[in-house]
Amino acid sequence: MTQLNFIEQGRRVLTIERQALDDIIQYLDDSFNTACQLMFQCQGRIIVVGMGKSGHIGNKIAATLASTGTPAFFVHPGEASHGDLGMITQNDVVMLISNSGETSEVLNIIPVIKRIGAKMVAMTGNPSSSMAKWADAHVCIKVSQEACPLGLAPTASTTATLAMGDAIAVALLETRGFTADDFALSHPGGSLGKRLLLCLKDLMHNGDATPIIKDTQRIKDALIEMSAKGLGMTAVVNEAGQLTGLFTDGDLRRILEQRIDIHNTLISEVMTRSCTTATADMLAAEALNIMERKRINGLIVIDDNQHPIGALNMQDLLKAGVL
């Protein structure tokens, strides 16, 4: 039996699909712009319709649109003919996906969509197709060949369709001024939601758990406080309770190398005075960025009057799923 060269076959497929992506760049034209304008101005939702493999791709496109600020959902054309057309209103834009542009299940519902009054955007590989002709805007996804050696299984064409759907979704996202906070509202679950929505007030150690000593105390007192609170640092405050400095495990290692008397030396003599701080409303993701950029392991959280109200370290971010 002839040994198959799987690597060579895989390379051939990826080469063809890469070429397909290069090919469709030329279709980012006035028609693409018109399609995006219709969807941007849509007062309802984007209804994505597709059959077979185009339907699978359409499902993903609808999900991407919905998660990036453009309300959308997928409707199966077969189900649409049996009641689901009731989901479509005149304020919606219907995106029809078909490589041939002649898929019968999709063509059958076009007259009803027209009667409802919804706008249509067709995404096909045939600019002369029925769908392209009847739609209000046509986005071409024509590719020179499928990666399937039989030329039958949708491969390069579905890759091109998916990529064009991403191009539309991101173009709309940027035009809407969609932000990370907006994105978080539709992704509250898992680590993504935590990274985007979690604030320091939600995970910081506060109250009696905040490591704090006065600047009139000794280094040994700082070590006792750090051991008790277990964050590898302590805030140092003046008589008014305002932050004047920070003492960390790293500072301790340095003073031990210098043979400084920890029993009699004031903490104010060895603390870091210009320390990085945070606020309770700061996003955890922002705090993580600061800690990584400054190469520090913890942050003291202060209020508007420079009073320490909490503290956290990298372990807290890790436990919360932010890191």
Could you explain the architecture of this structure?
This protein is an alpha/beta fold and 323 residues long. It is 42% helix and 17% strand. The protein contains 14 helices and 12 strands. The strands form 3 sheets. The protein has a 5-stranded parallel β-sheet. It has a 4-stranded mixed β-sheet with strand order 6-12-11-10. The chain has a 3-stranded mixed β-sheet with strand order 7-8-9. α1 crosses α8, α2 crosses α8 and α3 runs parallel beside α8. The longest helix has 21 residues. The mean pLDDT is 92.
How many beta-strand segments?
Answer: 12
- The value of Rg in angstroms is 30 Å
- Name the helicity range: 40-55%
Gap between N and C termini, in Å?
51 Å
Order of helices and strands: HHEHEHEHHEHEHHHEEHEEHEHEEH
Tell me what portion of residues adopts beta-strand conformation: 15-25%
Structural class: alpha/beta
**Biggest sheet: strands, sense, closure?**
5 strands, parallel
The 3D shape can be described as: elongated
Quickly count the helices.
14
Mean pLDDT, rounded to whole units? 92
Runs in which pLDDT lies below 50 for 5 or more consecutive residues are none
Adjacency order of strands in the biggest sheet: 2-1-3-4-5
